[in-house]
Amino acid sequence: MRIPALFCLLFACISFESCKNNQSEKDANAAKEKAEEIVSSTCYKAMYENDTVDLKVNTLKSGKISGDLVMKIYANPKKIGEIYGEYHGDTLLVSYTYIDEGNEKVTYKNPMAFLKKDSLLVLGNGKLETSMGATYFVKGEPIDYENVKYKFSTVDCVGK
Hints:
The chain is of the alpha+beta class. Helix content is 21%, strand content 51%. The longest helix is centred in the first third of the chain and has 34 residues, at 2-35.
């Protein structure tokens, strides 16, 4: 008689703890969604010879940056992806996760650095290194913002 009562008590305790965990998980998800809320959006476009790059930058409530980046580079498949990162002073450092149009099975991820000059964003060139499958800018090597192809100017946001 004692064993079934103990078993029921144990089962009730586990059930209550499980409900409590679900509630705290829901609270954490709600806080994360609130931090990921978009405060403002700015759209940019860069053109160089036959290349066109479209960029949408969303400023999140948390201060982070997210957005979309589409690169149409002449004689190459279109790169469609998302950026996520943050400003460090006047430099926007992001991770660009993208796919090549026509090959949706493979996802690529590269770092990018933009320098904000007035209403322009300048895409910098830097030395990249890959270690354990992750690509990043080489520490101590400067990022060049002078000899660049892509200088983004603001445009009206269309679509999304």
